Amino acid sequence: MKSIPRGIPCLTVIILFFGYLSSVMGFTNMLNTIMRTAHDLLLNTVFYLMAMCVLTAALSRICCVFGVVDLLQRMLKPVLRPLYSLPGVSSAGALMTFLSDKPAIISVAKNPQFARYFKRYQHISLVNFAGCYAMGLLVIIFMLGHGFYTEPLYGLAGAVCGSIIATRLMQRLVLKEHPEYLDEDVVADRPQETTADGRPVKVPYETHPDEPGQTLFIRILDALLDGGKAGVEVGLAIIPGVLIISTLVMMLTFSGVPSPDGSGITYTGEAYQGTALLPYLAGKMSFLLDWLFGFKASQLVAFPITALGTVGAALGLIPEMMSKGIVDGNAIAVFTAMGMCWSGFLSADAATLDSLGYRHFISRSFACTFVGGIAAGIITHWLYFIVTYLLGSLC
Hints:
The protein is mainly α. The chain contains 19 helices and two strands. Strand 1 (257-258) and strand 2 form a beta hairpin. Helix 2 packs across helix 8 (136-145), helix 2 runs antiparallel to helix 10 (216-237) and helix 2 packs across helix 11 (239-253). The longest helix is centred in the N-terminal third of the chain and has 39 residues, at 27-65. It is globular, with a radius of gyration of 23 Å. Residues 203-210 have low confidence and may be disordered.
């Protein structure tokens, strides 16, 4: 039997997918909805996220330049060892991803002066540890900007729990396959670099050099502008994910509008219309989603599904969900936890592990991060429920 010609499976999937959308919505309405949804996302969501990226990146660069990251690393050192089985300098990696995105861990982890503190199994699990905090500042500020002030704190607590589970599980899987990594140093000779005048070089945390003659004002200005430029790059990088993934997810999440005669659903080609396939599937297990995550509306499952690809696109779903009145405080808390833990790991973790030389651990890393995100959502929901409802009723 001859093999199927290359391209036939891909073409079949495309025809089936868009054939399904057009059969429900109509071909012309489907095309109009795709274009109008992407256009509205670009104007009202992407530029908002880009502005946030610029501001948060500038803040993160200020923290790096003036030693805030180094200070927090020293403060968190006693906590990381018992919880994560990681050296204290690992907090620098988590802070970098929290203030920016997952790829920020690459430059930190590949630095010999940073890597020399790690055993091999710790260095591999660093991607899971730091990745569970990726874009945390952006996610939290986004929630704050929409009027949710305490809910993101519950999500942050859940993300911490999820990161512990993901990191420890990854270390367990690595050591099960390679027990020799328990004692193997990443940098065997532990070199110590020195400056031109013989002083030892400290572990760098992306700090800005103190150039001769620079005034405090110039250092602040340089840090803000350099951070802002990095934020623009992040903002541009999330455009494809927001426009492509969010548009497709929304078309599978939302429905049309009621017909004028009340006989059913009709489609007009406006933005944010769709086939409501995901809510239909989620409705088949609504009891499970409600018990695990507290999702009262089946459409809420679109956020974690989108966060698997990119958390920026997932955030783009929230304004429309809020306009439909299906988002509550519990959902925001769970979104924060799962958005941070997953944060597009399907698209970012593979490239990150490959750049660090751990390509053969990609599938295990995916599994650990997925489990960590699920656990983060469950823990956050029940934490929010206990504090808000149970303790609230007692008071």
